[in-house]
């Protein structure tokens, strides 16, 4: 019998802006990362090209301990950068542990052109993306 999956991916629209925004809730496993990556890349493709940004809400995620899931998150960074993502604006709230983990994924990905920053709120992330990238 399969164990019950403790993962939810919420998605949000940002009308008029080339921004993909998701909130991960619970424990991400490899399949969750694959599904999230596919969603983000398909949504970005719908913008019709050009630069875009991603707001991953990570403040409701559980820490990730298995290496396969960590590797898939690092791969997600690379794939987003290759697809034109200029920035990831992580919403980590006050979660220091998850913020550190996201920074590790970014470093491991070696996605050097894409900028990654961390914010307490989604409003802060949206403001930064508009002021910094015009998105």
What this model shows, in words?
α1 packs parallel to α2 (67-82) and α2 (67-82) packs across α3. The chain has one domain (7-133): 2-Layer Sandwich (Transcription Regulator spoIIAA), CATH 3.30.750.24. The termini are far apart. It has helices spanning 30-45, 67-82, 96-109, 122-133; strands at residues 7-12, 19-26, 52-61, 85-91, 115-119. β2 (19-26), α1 (30-45) and β3 (52-61) form a beta-alpha-beta unit. It has a 5-stranded mixed β-sheet, with helices on both faces. The protein is an alpha/beta fold. The chain is globular, with a radius of gyration of 14 Å. The model has no long low-confidence stretch (mean pLDDT 87).
Largest sheet: 5 strands, mixed
Helix content: 40-55%
- Strand arrangement, major sheet: 1-2-3-4-5
Low-confidence stretches: none
Order of helices and strands: EEHEHEHEH
Query: How many distinct beta strands?
Result: 5
CATH topological fold name: Transcription Regulator spoIIAA
Q: Helical segment tally?
A: 4
Distance between the termini: 45 Å
Any idea of the CATH class? Alpha Beta
Keywords:
single chain; 135 residues; alpha/beta; Transcription Regulator spoIIAA; 5-stranded mixed beta sheet; 4 helices; 43% helix; 27% strand; globular
List the helices and strands and how they pair.
Elements: E1 7-12, E2 19-26, H1 30-45, E3 52-61, H2 67-82, E4 85-91, H3 96-109, E5 115-119, H4 122-133
Parallel strand pairs: 2-3, 3-4, 4-5
Antiparallel strand pairs: 1-2
């Amino acid at each position: 019998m399969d164990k019950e999956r403790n993962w939810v991916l919420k998605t949000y629209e940002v009308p008029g802006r080339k921004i993909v925004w998701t909130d991960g809730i619970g424990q991400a496993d490899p399949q969750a990362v694959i599904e999230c990556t596919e969603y983000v890349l398909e949504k970005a493709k719908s913008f019709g090209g050009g630069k875009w940004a991603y707001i991953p809400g990570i403040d409701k995620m559980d820490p990730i301990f298995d290496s396969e899931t960590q590797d898939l998150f690092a791969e997600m960074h690379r794939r987003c950068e290759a697809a034109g993502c200029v920035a990831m604006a992580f919403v980590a709230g006050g979660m220091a542990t998850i913020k550190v983990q996201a920074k590790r994924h970014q470093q491991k990905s070696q996605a050097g052109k894409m900028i990654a920053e961390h914010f307490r709120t989604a409003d802060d992330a949206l403001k930064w993306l508009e002021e910094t990238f015009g998105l």
